[in-house]
């Protein structure tokens, strides 16, 4: 048997087998399920997994930017004028996050950890020196004390006398460093002499540098990949006690540092944030790409911070009916030791219009998460919020008699992260492997199609060869005339019988 005789059938057979197998695998989700199951087993919070070390010590740098609102008409504000502010910032800090005292429990289905954060100032990314730059704004400790004693005529008058004696005003001028990391407040020192439980230092980030926000217990995702990184308990509690409804007190979702793989666009993701002492949810907004990595952008819908009239489910966040101020505002005093603080997220226009110099824009003030849907890895994120103080007239404090009720802006913060190049390269390699394995049936079909083309070409060529051979070996008789005229046979000489001699 010649080689030509078996090559063509072999190519044809191989082509048919590849096409049948490839189409069969493509119709049947065997490889896709295989890859998904592999991801579910790899992305779990257990020792030795692909993600465990990066979960404990995230490699991408996190930056915290602080912007302060400096009051430019302080004297007029005390007389009831509309506040005028100028935003100053950013004062940027590199935020280092790491999990301490990590231990596995419940046969590896849960993991316990403390989330520790530390901050290092970055002068090159900041507008000035926080130790020198001064900001004039609301005197938060004074308002906290006045709010605490309002309703008690005796205590209010006593605090008012202390404020006059110590020359404590409703507004104060402090350095950025003092406002952030703390200073010894004279009024708090005086109050602590009668109430030792009162902290004498105040700062918006006081005691938050190098500290943690309590013990977390997480699901590892070993039993169910959808539970990967989900918070089970915080500070030993499976639900909160700050709010007035069970729904608002639920601890839902992850802590924002980990999300399960295989995300869908129609999925709602939940995040528990200890800074706000509540859970929030985010919905898919659009597809984006970060450093060549495809991602889904999730953002909190308006309903998350909507008023109780707009979203009745938020009624539980109103500790008292008077403390619900409208869409975009959340009073976080219940978990901030009674400080009269409000977090603002794109609040209603009436709150913006009450302050001259405010111009919030969605693209600069929106919180969002960009997640790779295959792995659940965070490729980019911005957590944005504004700290505000509610000011108004308080009975027993004559200094407040000219004030109008106002949600006064103090500070805007932007906590951001962008995946670093080394991590992006690892994600890209993983996605390439996933893509190759998931599309393996298509690769087999493509190889089968190529072999089919080769088979057809070989058939055509073989047909032409056989036709040519038949033409070359066929026999046809030569006529007498052709022989006469054929130059190769020479000239045919006709012979006649010799005539007999005549008698």
TrEMBL record:
Main location class: membrane
One GO location term (cellular component): lysosome
UniProt superkingdom: Eukaryota
Localization in the cell: Membrane
Stretches the record annotates as Disordered: 468-503
Molecular function terms from GO: scavenger receptor activity
Swiss-Prot/TrEMBL keywords: Glycoprotein, Membrane, Transmembrane, Transmembrane helix
Transmembrane regions: 7-31, 430-460
GO terms for biological process, alphabetical: protein targeting to lysosome; receptor-mediated endocytosis
Family statement drawn from the similarity comment of this UniProt entry: Belongs to the CD36 family.
Listed name of the protein: Scavenger receptor class B, member 2a
Source organism: Mola mola
Lineage, highest ranks first: Eukaryota, Metazoa, Chordata, Craniata, Vertebrata
